[in-house]
Write a sequence for this structure.
């Protein structure tokens, strides 16, 4: 089986992992945090942070040869479940219907103390 490691030119390179890994038929996207192309956390509330994470994942999906229409599973990690409703508002607004399968949990701690991280699995 071929395994292709993918890094989006739109996202900052991270030495610990690839932005995505592509195998025949599937793309596994690493979690994206609310950072801009320079690696800085974007200003704003949880809605702005969720939108940035989803935009970042869109960049990775495009680079990997896929799109939000082909996403089959999304995992959302929140610093606080108190942000659940606000994140859902952005998620519903920004993702195409029908929505993919999804899990959303509260994480004990996220990198750089951000309030959200989102990862996805997509078909090619």
């Amino acid at each position: 089986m071929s395994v292709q490691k993918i890094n989006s030119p739109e996202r900052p390179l991270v030495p610990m992992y690839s932005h995505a890994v592509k195998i025949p038929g599937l793309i596994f996207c690493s979690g994206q945090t609310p950072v801009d192309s320079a690696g800085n956390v974007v200003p704003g509330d949880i809605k702005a942070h969720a939108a940035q994470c989803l935009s970042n994942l869109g960049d990775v999906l495009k680079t990997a040869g896929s799109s939000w229409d082909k996403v089959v599973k999304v995992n959302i990690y929140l610093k606080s479940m108190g942000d659940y409703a606000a994140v859902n508002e952005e998620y519903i607004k920004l993702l195409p219907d029908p929505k993919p399968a999804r899990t959303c949990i509260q994480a004990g701690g996220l990198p750089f103390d951000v309030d959200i991280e989102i990862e996805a699995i997509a078909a090619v």
About this structure: The longest strand covers residues 71-78. The mean pLDDT is 96.
